[in-house]
Amino acid sequence: MSSEAKIATNQVVQTKAMESRMKGKMKEHGELMAAILSGLLIFGGWLLNKAEINTASITLYIMAFCIGGFAKAKEGLEATIKEKELNVELLMFIAAVGSAIIGYWTEGAILIFIFALSGALETYTMNRSNKEISSLMELQPEEAFLVSNGEQRKVDVSELEIGNVIFVKPGERVPADGVVVKGGSAIDESAITGESMPIQKNISDEVFAGTVNITGSMSIQVTKLSVDTIFQKIINLVQTAQSEKSPSQLFIERFEGTYVKVVLSVVALMMILPHFLFSWSWQETFYRAMVLLVVSSPCALVASIMPATLSAISNGARNGILFKGGVHLENLGSLKAIAFDKTGTITRGTPEVTDFIVVEEENEREIKQMAASIECHSNHPLAKAIVRHVVKGNVDLVEIEGITDVLGFGIEAIIQGDIWKIGKAEFVNLEKDSEIFGAPLVDMTEKGKTMVYIQKNEKVIALVALKDILRSDAKKALQDLNSLDLATVMITGDNEKTARAIAKDIKLSDYISDCLPENKVEKVKELKKKYKVVAMVGDGVNDAPALATASIGIAMGEGTDVALETADVVLMKNELLKIPQAIQLSKKMNRIIKQNICFSILVIMVLISSNFLQVLDLPLGVIGHEGSTILVILNGLRLLKN
């Protein structure tokens, strides 16, 4: 193919890709754009009506009806035909048309606009919520190196069978669940367990798909098919949890049909019976039926919730709290318990040096210098933490040659004839010097810290304690949550000792340790049975199923994409103190919504009663109906204030 032909082909491909993206955007945002355009047409019609250009005004209103109401009218009609059940969408459209029939185009058009806007926001949120599955899939390797007859060949993960042996290089993600049959390495399992510290894996140890091989190469025997891996279970759990409808949603769906049937039945009777029962004229009968249809439409009820919800969401966004929908904001005020992941949520997610203890007769500065100079040759997170700690103390590093990395134990170096070792207790034969650090060692162990020992010429001369440090606002946030009478529980993949130490430090109500993702989901379900409404706070891929299962999922803003997509609430600035603020905002919003609903229902009852008694004319009905709508909107807008 000539270069000109290739260029032409590329242009065609790019054009088609752009068209596909544009169609996708239109499909995702089309309903919202139609609602906004409908609102602009209503404003234009109102201005023309004020200028007494009636024909043009009505034309714009009709366009607003068609553009704004098309999606909801179609949805309502299709749902009615499919489910053989009337719905609010159909009632709202009929009420708007009824309003236009008796000459009140503005009211009918505004009714269409309010409902179209709320429907567009719901559709947009649903489209956004489907993206976390693709985010999960990106973390799961698609290919693996299959070892057969001493040779390696690249195959699709779906082709792997139980018993196959695969080869994983340093820096690669493990493509399948299995056991190590050759080699060994430190594995970052944070995507599965949430544990920030890498876990050393040797022969016969189990490894999971989606985890990262850090240091050495390994041969792994596959024990599960790709569809049965723990990582795939995470994806399935997210899908299952998101497909479940909340009790509130089910109640609203049942209420819709009943409300619509009652209103339309009464309006139908109102168009006939008063003529025979009360000797009303047919004109009066039809007039009263249309007034009833207008004043009984749930415009004020819709306005009771949406403006208040949007105001609260805007308030939260200004303060670093992103709510993905009004239902999540509403449910937050009913919380009885809140569960936390540890790593990256309560803690910062990276190990830091908390103690650097040197035996009395040794030179502390020299030991720190040598330790950091040796550890800078390692990619292990603990080694990086030691280097950061030493460099922060203005200690210069020196060039060292002859470094030996002893897989799974530590690192060794020979410097000017001295043999230095840095690593685990068994690597430095700590038994010979077991009493050297005494009580401090016991205390640090009880606090769940990780120990690294430094040895020089067969003598242990220093101890480095590391820990995943608490976030600066964790204690205050937990204190505020406890003051709201909430049960606070930490669910973590960490060991029991570390979990207990943290729970004691920040005064958690309870903690659950050693949890894999499916265990976290079960624990959240148990908490929901006990407390009914439970929130889960997390930041990692491993937290996604629990976030989706909880009544409200709360993600840290710097967390993984899948956690952010799955969660219902996102703390954009990673501040735990925003959680109690969000709960208080939710409680205030719920109070205002209840006020609005009670007021709007009372007004509708008064208007309907007055219409039956023939003391309510259409202008007063419009004033009462629209006036109540304006009042509840203004009440809801109070939530814009901090």
Automatic annotation (TrEMBL):
<feature type="transmembrane region" description="Helical">
    <location>
        <begin position="54"/>
        <end position="74"/>
    </location>
</feature>
<keyword id="KW-0597">Phosphoprotein</keyword>
<dbReference type="InterPro" id="IPR018303">
    <property type="entry name" value="ATPase_P-typ_P_site"/>
</dbReference>
<keyword id="KW-1003">Cell membrane</keyword>
<feature type="transmembrane region" description="Helical">
    <location>
        <begin position="259"/>
        <end position="280"/>
    </location>
</feature>
<dbReference type="GO" id="GO:0016887">
    <property type="term" value="F:ATP hydrolysis activity"/>
</dbReference>
<keyword id="KW-1278">Translocase</keyword>
<dbReference type="InterPro" id="IPR008250">
    <property type="entry name" value="ATPase_P-typ_transduc_dom_A_sf"/>
</dbReference>
<dbReference type="InterPro" id="IPR023299">
    <property type="entry name" value="ATPase_P-typ_cyto_dom_N"/>
</dbReference>
<dbReference type="Pfam" id="PF00122">
    <property type="entry name" value="E1-E2_ATPase"/>
</dbReference>
<comment type="similarity">
    <text>Belongs to the cation transport ATPase (P-type) (TC 3.A.3) family. Type IB subfamily.</text>
</comment>
<keyword id="KW-0406">Ion transport</keyword>
<keyword id="KW-0812">Transmembrane</keyword>
<keyword id="KW-0472">Membrane</keyword>
<feature type="transmembrane region" description="Helical">
    <location>
        <begin position="30"/>
        <end position="48"/>
    </location>
</feature>
<dbReference type="GO" id="GO:0019829">
    <property type="term" value="F:ATPase-coupled monoatomic cation transmembrane transporter activity"/>
</dbReference>
<dbReference type="InterPro" id="IPR051949">
    <property type="entry name" value="Cation_Transport_ATPase"/>
</dbReference>
<feature type="transmembrane region" description="Helical">
    <location>
        <begin position="597"/>
        <end position="616"/>
    </location>
</feature>
<dbReference type="InterPro" id="IPR027256">
    <property type="entry name" value="P-typ_ATPase_IB"/>
</dbReference>
<keyword id="KW-0460">Magnesium</keyword>
<dbReference type="InterPro" id="IPR036412">
    <property type="entry name" value="HAD-like_sf"/>
</dbReference>
<dbReference type="Pfam" id="PF00702">
    <property type="entry name" value="Hydrolase"/>
</dbReference>
<dbReference type="InterPro" id="IPR023298">
    <property type="entry name" value="ATPase_P-typ_TM_dom_sf"/>
</dbReference>
<dbReference type="InterPro" id="IPR044492">
    <property type="entry name" value="P_typ_ATPase_HD_dom"/>
</dbReference>
<feature type="transmembrane region" description="Helical">
    <location>
        <begin position="86"/>
        <end position="104"/>
    </location>
</feature>
<dbReference type="GO" id="GO:0005524">
    <property type="term" value="F:ATP binding"/>
</dbReference>
<dbReference type="InterPro" id="IPR023214">
    <property type="entry name" value="HAD_sf"/>
</dbReference>
<dbReference type="InterPro" id="IPR059000">
    <property type="entry name" value="ATPase_P-type_domA"/>
</dbReference>
<keyword id="KW-0813">Transport</keyword>
<feature type="domain" description="P-type ATPase A">
    <location>
        <begin position="138"/>
        <end position="239"/>
    </location>
</feature>
<feature type="transmembrane region" description="Helical">
    <location>
        <begin position="286"/>
        <end position="310"/>
    </location>
</feature>
<dbReference type="GO" id="GO:0046872">
    <property type="term" value="F:metal ion binding"/>
</dbReference>
<dbReference type="GO" id="GO:0005886">
    <property type="term" value="C:plasma membrane"/>
</dbReference>
<keyword id="KW-0547">Nucleotide-binding</keyword>
<keyword id="KW-0067">ATP-binding</keyword>
<keyword id="KW-0479">Metal-binding</keyword>
<dbReference type="InterPro" id="IPR001757">
    <property type="entry name" value="P_typ_ATPase"/>
</dbReference>
<protein>
    <submittedName>
        <fullName>Heavy metal translocating P-type ATPase</fullName>
    </submittedName>
</protein>
<keyword id="KW-1133">Transmembrane helix</keyword>
